[in-house]
């Protein structure tokens, strides 16, 4: 068996290159390989003898109780015998490591050899299984693939419809695959997709294009407005061209619309939104991106809202006023672009803070190096204008963060509830802070005294040079994800602090390249704290 595998170009353990056994060198190659095999057999034999000869030593030390003091233990062996036993075990470990490497090389060789055969057989078997699969199940698979497309396009539908005649017949009779309609599509394609989508109420419409031609936009919307009762989501730009294209459609009925996304340019100056008179009773999600001083969220009965704001749209008082009318809001995302912006122009002194009852808040603040003080000033203003009550999940992204947390003036502010289940921090920093005091994470989270899980998700190194930064006694679980700065030495210091404080019960290490699984598994503190290590 081994000879046949080698003749089939399995990787050689020494050269790690494919072997080609030719007639003239058969005997030489055979002898060299037999010598290699005898070497491994000898290693295994040595390891087995070492285990047998040291069995008594192992049993003797295994019998020691964990609570028994080492000074009270009487060893029947003298020191030379123990040293010899230790050296023998060390040699065995070296031989085991070498064997493991060689076995891994052979496993890779076998996988390389078997993969094409396995793939061919699996492909044939998969195709046969697909032929036996009922059309209803195949249609469900197609629809699942369509829903999983993160780009929200119809590329998956077009791909599966071109595999075979049967795939095409099933795809064409699965209406959900043809519900995504884009302004940039050809009118004939839009017409064909409308026909294929039948009467399903799941049309996803993207009416935004890089070229806002009124004629093209009018043609596109005139095709779709008669099917407005089937719209599921709508994305458009509220500007002069769109208003001209919809001038004859003022009271659009949208009985199945769940999601709407509106974009406003920096020159937008209308008094009321285009969709003010549209009937959208089941609307659940409202999303907007605005660079203008005017944008709208009037009395929307949505449960989820995402706002991307820049320039004049960053006015905190106006933001608070817009959120006031959203009484059923449960999930809020604020994405604030502070680059090249003098935040003083959009900051106001609050009178009474707005009370928002939310379950989830995502707060993203980004700026450039030329505007370093903007991020902290704007965050302080948000905390002064709003209070988030009933919050269960908080995710905060600072990209990047210039300055020290100690400079963040949140004293006396309580924007968050005292207890929160999950807090995730994604912080990037471009500064080197040296040895000066930097501050504590609690500056970012004023009012919070009890955290279920604190997740630190960052790839940079300079921000967390101080161990005290992440020594949060308020969190019961702390997770580090993708933290390239986190070394085993630094983590050991943190673990000692967490164990001493006693509040942190669980530690998760996720995809941190400088912390090995062996370090976590062999950590002596695992008896006092739960520790997990994973790649995802």
Automatic annotation (TrEMBL):
Domain of life, source organism: Eukaryota
Q: Which InterPro entries match?
A: F-box-like_dom_sf (IPR036047), F-box_dom (IPR001810)
Presence of keyword Cell wall biogenesis/degradation: no
Instruction: Give yes or no: UniProt keyword Coiled coil.
Output: yes
Q: Which residues form a coiled coil?
A: 79-106
Boundaries of every F-box domain copy: 132-183
Q: List UniProt keywords, sorted A-Z.
A: Coiled coil
Protein name (record): F-box domain-containing protein
Where does this protein come from, organism-wise? Rickenella mellea
């Amino acid at each position: 068996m081994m000879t046949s595998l080698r003749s089939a170009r399995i990787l050689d353990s020494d050269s790690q290159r494919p072997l080609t056994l030719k007639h003239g060198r058969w005997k030489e190659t055979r002898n060299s390989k037999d010598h290699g095999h005898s070497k491994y057999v000898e290693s295994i034999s040595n390891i087995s003898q070492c285990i047998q000869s040291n069995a008594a030593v192992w049993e003797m030390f295994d019998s020691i109780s964990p609570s028994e003091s080492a000074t009270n233990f009487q060893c029947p062996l003298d020191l030379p015998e123990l040293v010899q036993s230790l050296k023998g075990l060390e040699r065995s470990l070296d031989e085991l490591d070498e064997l493991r490497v060689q076995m891994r090389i052979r496993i890779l060789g076998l996988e390389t050899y078997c993969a094409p055969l396995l793939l061919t057989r699996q492909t044939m078997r998969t195709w046969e299984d697909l032929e036996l699969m009922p059309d209803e199940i195949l249609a469900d698979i197609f629809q699942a693939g369509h829903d999983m497309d993160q780009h929200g396009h119809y590329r998956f539908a077009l791909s599966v419809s071109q595999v075979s005649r049967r795939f095409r017949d099933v795809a064409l009779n699965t209406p959900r695959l043809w519900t995504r309609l884009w302004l940039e599509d050809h009118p004939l394609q839009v017409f064909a997709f409308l026909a294929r989508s039948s009467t399903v109420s799941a049309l996803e419409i993207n009416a935004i294009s890089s070229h806002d031609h009124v004629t093209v936009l009018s043609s596109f919307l005139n095709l779709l407005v008669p099917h407005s009762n089937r719209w599921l989501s709508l994305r458009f730009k509220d500007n002069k061209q769109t208003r001209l294209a919809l001038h004859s459609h003022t009271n659009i009925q949208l009985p199945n619309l769940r999601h709407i996304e509106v974009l406003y340019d920096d020159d937008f100056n209308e008094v009321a939104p285009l969709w003010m008179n549209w009937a959208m009773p089941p609307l659940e999600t409202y999303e907007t991106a605005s660079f203008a001083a005017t944008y709208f969220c009037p009395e929307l009965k949505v449960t989820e809202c995402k706002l991307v704001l820049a320039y004049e749209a960053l006015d905190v008082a106006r933001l608070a006023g817009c959120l006031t009318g959203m009484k059923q809001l449960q999930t809020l995302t604020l994405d604030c672009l502070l680059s090249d912006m003098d935040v003083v122009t959009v900051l106001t002194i609050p009178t009474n803070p707005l009370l928002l009852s939310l379950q989830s808040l995502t707060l993203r603040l980004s700026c450039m190096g030329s505007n370093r003080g903007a991020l902290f000033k704007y965050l302080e203003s948000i905390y002064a204008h709003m209070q988030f009550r009933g919050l269960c999940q908080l995710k905060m992204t600072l990209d990047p963060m210039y300055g020290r947390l100690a400079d963040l003036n949140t004293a006396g502010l309580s924007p968050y509830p005292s207890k929160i289940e999950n807090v995730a921090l994604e912080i990037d920093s471009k500064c080197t802070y040296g040895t000066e005091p930097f501050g504590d994470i609690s500056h970012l989270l004023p009012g919070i005294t009890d955290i279920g899980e604190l997740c630190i998700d960052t790839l940079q190194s300079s921000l967390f040079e101080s161990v005290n930064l992440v020594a949060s006694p308020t969190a019961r679980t702390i997770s580090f994800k993708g933290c390239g700065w986190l070394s085993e030495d630094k983590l050991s210091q943190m673990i000692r602090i967490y164990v001493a404080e006693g509040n942190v019960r669980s530690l998760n290490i996720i995809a941190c390249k400088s912390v090995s699984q062996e370090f976590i598994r062999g950590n002596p503190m695992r008896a006092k704290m739960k520790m997990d290590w994973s790649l995802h």
